[in-house]
Design goal:
This protein is of the alpha+beta class. It has one domain. The protein is 23% helix and 30% strand. The protein has a 6-stranded antiparallel β-sheet with strand order 2-1-5-6-7-8, with helices on one face. Strands 3-4 form a two-stranded antiparallel sheet. Strand 7 and strand 8 form a beta hairpin. Helix 1 packs antiparallel against helix 2. The C terminus is likely disordered.
């Protein structure tokens, strides 16, 4: 889990426990303080464009996680170096999309 420069590492015995922990931590981040627009080098970044915190799952065959944006929204992703969004299906939020992705056993540990 990363919030700003602070990184915490946790271990879970099963994928379900890891997903529960990831969701719990991401929801805490999402309910935290909101960010405003930030200007940097002649460009402005809205709260939705900023990653306020990241919860990552890393294990055998899995490299995925949740980014919590500055406006409190969450987005599931997969990948190691390049993060690819996991698109939620009908009725899913980012957390359910991540659970589905992991349950389907889609390997994300190998990148070209």
């Amino acid at each position: 889990m990363r919030t700003g420069p602070r990184v915490e590492k946790h271990r879970a015995a099963t994928p379900d426990e890891a997903l529960d922990l990831a969701e719990r931590e991401a929801r805490v981040l999402a309910n935290g303080p909101r960010r405003g627009t930030v200007s940097a080098i002649a460009r402005e970044y809205s709260a939705q464009q900023q990653v306020a915190g990241r919860v990552e799952l890393a294990g055998p065959g899995v490299r995925a996680g949740i980014d919590v944006r500055g406006d409190g929204s969450a987005e599931a992703w997969t990948g190691r170096i390049r993060r690819t969004p996991i698109e939620p299906r009908d009725g899913e939020d980012a957390y359910a999309a991540l659970r589905r992705f992991v349950a389907e056993g889609q390997s994300t540990s190998v990148e070209p």
